[in-house]
Amino acid sequence: MADKNNGATLKPCAVVVGAGSRQGIGGALCARFAAAGLHVYATGRSADKLEPLATEIRTSGGSVTAVTADAANPADVQTLFDRITEAGHVPELVVFNASELNMPTSFAATTPEFVEKMWRTCCFGGFVVGHEAIERMLPQKRGTLIFTGASASLRGRPKFGAFAAAKAGLRIHAQAFAREFGPEGIHVAHVVVDGIVGGDRANKFGYGLGKAFLFTKGEDGALHPDAIAESYWQLHCQHRSAWTHELDLRPYKETF
């Protein structure tokens, strides 16, 4: 693709917003996309998590740039995508995977500040990233934009109202983007991750409580980050005559 500003040929890349440790959804996505030959922009709020991830990907032969940015900050997101363009890349695959720690909170203990924080990260951030991604995909008339959802995207449960409201809003943004920009050649998908993910966040939670909970799930009772990443990649590879908009991922033991 030629850049309208200087006529240079832009190379396709992948962008993962909400990347973290290698043993998590975001890190697994970065590794999978890099293994497929795409230069990956691994973006998150913690440089302490991004740098080890980037080092591991490079050691495995992948190409990656670690960028510290807050998805809920429009200026950060615009700077990220401007940096991508200036580096000679164009987004071919963008994943919004940012989230806040999903802890049960009673209605009485839920503050307006908590609700707003959850909404800004899980919903507003998705809109901002989607807006910037689509703006850069439209000239090439192709690209894949994927949003990470949860079972909370579909239903509200006691003590998880703020998270569910934010995730449901993200799902609606994804539907609106898909209906408006699918005919323009942009594949927009929403992935419902239904179940606990067997990554670092769960394993390190609560001084061993998370690891103990994962143990009770048994073999393959939690979602494997690499298996999730493979499903995202397959979404990207779909032919446009048979696109999936919403995909449910859950362990075989998980009820629904």
Keywords:
single chain; disordered N terminus; 256 residues; Rossmann fold; seven-stranded parallel sheet; 8 helices
Can you describe what's shown?
This is Glucose 1-dehydrogenase. With 256 residues, this protein is α/β, with parallel strands linked by helices. It has a single domain, classed as Rossmann fold, CATH 3.40.50. 43% of the residues lie in helices and 18% in strands. It is built from eight helices and seven strands; from the N terminus they run βαβαβαβαβαβαααβ. The chain has helices at residues 25-35, 47-59, 74-86, 112-137, 161-181, 200-203, 209-217, 225-237; strands at residues 11-17, 39-44, 64-68, 89-96, 143-150, 186-193, 246-249. Strands 3-2-1-4-5-6-7 form a seven-stranded parallel β-sheet, with helices on both faces. Helix 4 links the parallel strand 4 (89-96) and strand 5 (143-150). Helix 1 packs across helix 8 (225-237), helix 3 (74-86) runs parallel beside helix 4 (112-137) and helix 4 packs parallel to helix 5. The radius of gyration is 18 Å and the shape is globular. It starts with 10 loop residues before the first strand and ends in a 7-residue tail after the last strand. The model is unreliable at 1-5 (pLDDT under 50).
